[in-house]
């Protein structure tokens, strides 16, 4: 009953979410308390090799930090640290975590290290690198930034160009609205037949992620796509991907224009938009904070690569893998983060050349909780909730459902977890556990979940 009471109090303190999400969490937390809290990990589709899927991204929960981020009396920390060492040490030695294990636990309000093992050792982070991508783009673009997709005309309005701005969340309803507005603008000028080109030149460098072509975890990285190049009706998780998402988007646009009375005499073909052509219509993504939350909750690789490139564009660098790496590194330096040995070869974590330390991940979470950096708050509110949302929807060690928020990371032989919990005295703790050469995800994930759950009262 004590555990149930704490669970209910923690969920209530986290603040309301839309569409009954909090009510569902309270009911599920109560169910966990009644049954004694079994391990609810399940295997399913995922962004990475076998990462579990989840429902639609959770709406922002700003109340979480309003309840948890106020500094507590520092006198409690010395008593907590030895207890953590006694509890976490044996759990971190679980054979399921393989031979390479690092860990960091800090007080998010003060930054004080409460537990650590090889905290500065660079490790392959898998999708926990998305925490770095999130912090970088939030610091570079600002909360109001949206990614545009537009249509520009030639001076005589006989030719139009569909211009990709790098929005992987563009879907058919928004594309249909874009076509409707474009067609109306053309018909108002007496134009019903046009030549169509499509412009993806905003992005530079390789289109195929280093993981390779034809991978269900990510589409070719291009500035124009619909539904992230998916060839099925899914909106998250692995899916067959188009080999030419930009061309597919342009061909879909042709059909949508025809539905509104505008036909194409030629095209679609690749081309660059006229430099001073009149804009006919534009559609915008959700604001960057919402994209960050969606990326973190469902571990969306396509959004992650797009946000890394938005960071590059915001800092006047090429929108490429190399440009994004330079931009993300620069933004994190400005946040005074421990970057020794860090490398951001991509934004999603699919690249095994990525390197981060446990100390870097926990410091990122500390920055996100810092009242001096409200722009970083979506880094925390986007974290999946154990047993409820995103890649943690099917994962919760005994008693941790609804009480652990964390970003998962999985590649073959790599398993990681980084996030936050509330301590017994109400302090927000940031943690990061990274394991390499793990024998299997089925062995490593429960071990990581037990580590996070051990931080709870």
UniProtKB/TrEMBL annotation:
Identify one Pfam family in the record. Peptidase_S13
* Coiled-coil parts of chain: none
What GO molecular function annotations does the UniProt record carry, in alphabetical order?
A: serine-type carboxypeptidase activity
Gene Ontology annotations of biological process type: peptidoglycan metabolic process; proteolysis
Does the keyword Protease feature in the UniProt annotation? yes
Q: Which InterPro entries match?
A: Beta-lactam/transpept-like, Peptidase_S13
Q: Annotated region Disordered: where?
A: 18-65
* Comp. bias intervals (Basic and acidic residues): 20-29
Question: Sorted alphabetically, which keywords does the UniProt record give?
Answer: Carboxypeptidase, Hydrolase, Protease
Stored NCBIfam families: PBP4
Which family, according to UniProt? Belongs to the peptidase S13 family.
Q: Which PANTHER family match?
A: D-ALANYL-D-ALANINE CARBOXYPEPTIDASE, PENICILLIN-SENSITIVE CARBOXYPEPTIDASE A
This protein's name: D-alanyl-D-alanine carboxypeptidase/D-alanyl-D-alanine-endopeptidase
According to its UniProt entry, this protein's organism is Streptomyces tirandamycinicus
Lineage here is: Bacteria, Bacillati, Actinomycetota, Actinomycetes, Kitasatosporales
Q: Which gene encodes it?
A: dacB
């Amino acid at each position: 009953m004590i555990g149930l009471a704490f669970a209910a109090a923690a969920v209530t303190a986290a603040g309301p979410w839309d569409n009954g999400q909090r009510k569902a969490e309270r009911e599920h937390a109560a169910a966990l308390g009644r049954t004694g809290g079994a391990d609810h990990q399940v295997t399913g589709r995922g962004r990475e090799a076998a990462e579990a899927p989840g429902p639609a991204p959770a709406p922002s929960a700003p109340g979480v930090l309003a309840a948890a981020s106020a500094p507590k009396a520092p006198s409690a920390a010395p008593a907590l640290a030895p207890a953590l060492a006694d509890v976490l040490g044996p759990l971190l030695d679980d054979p399921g975590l393989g031979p390479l294990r690092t860990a960091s636990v800090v007080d998010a309000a003060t930054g004080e290290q409460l537990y650590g093992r090889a905290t500065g050792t660079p490790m392959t982070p898998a999708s926990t690198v998305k925490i770095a991508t999130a912090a970088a783009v939030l610091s570079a673009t600002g909360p109001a930034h949206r990614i545009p997709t537009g249509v520009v005309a030639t001076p005589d309005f006989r030719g139009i160009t569909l211009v990709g701005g790098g929005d992987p969340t563009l879907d058919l309803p928004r594309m249909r609205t874009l076509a409707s507005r474009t067609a109306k603008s053309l018909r108002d000028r007496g134009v019903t037949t046009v030549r169509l080109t499509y412009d993806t030149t905003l992005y530079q460098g390789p289109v195929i992620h280093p993981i390779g072509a034809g991978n269900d975890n990510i589409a070719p990285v291009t500035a124009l796509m619909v539904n992230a190049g998916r060839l099925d009706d899914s909106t998250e998780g692995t899916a067959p991907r188009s080999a030419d998402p930009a061309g597919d988007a342009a061909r879909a646009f042709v059909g949508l224009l025809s539905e509104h009375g505008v036909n194409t005499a030629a095209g679609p073909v690749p081309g660059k938009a006229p430099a001073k052509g009149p804009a006919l219509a534009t559609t915008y993504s959700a604001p960057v904070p919402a994209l960050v939350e969606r990326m973190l909750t469902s571990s969306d690789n396509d959004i992650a690569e797009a946000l890394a490139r938005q960071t590059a564009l915001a800092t006047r660098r090429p929108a490429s893998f190399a440009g994004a790496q330079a931009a993300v590194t620069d933004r994190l330096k400005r946040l005074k983060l421990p970057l020794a040995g860090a490398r951001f070869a991509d934004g999603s974590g699919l690249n095994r050349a990525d390197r981060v330390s446990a100390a870097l991940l926990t410091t990122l979470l500390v920055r996100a909780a810092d009242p001096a950096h409200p722009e970083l708050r979506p880094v925390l509110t986007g974290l999946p909730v154990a047993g409820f949302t995103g890649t943690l929807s099917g994962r919760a060690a005994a008693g941790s459902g609804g009480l652990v928020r964390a970003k998962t990371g999985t590649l073959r032989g790599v398993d990681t977890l980084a996030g936050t919990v509330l301590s017994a005295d109400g302090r927000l703790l940031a943690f990061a556990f990274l394991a390499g050469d793990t024998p299997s995800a089925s062995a490593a994930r429960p071990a990581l979940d037990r580590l996070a759950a051990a931080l709870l009262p």
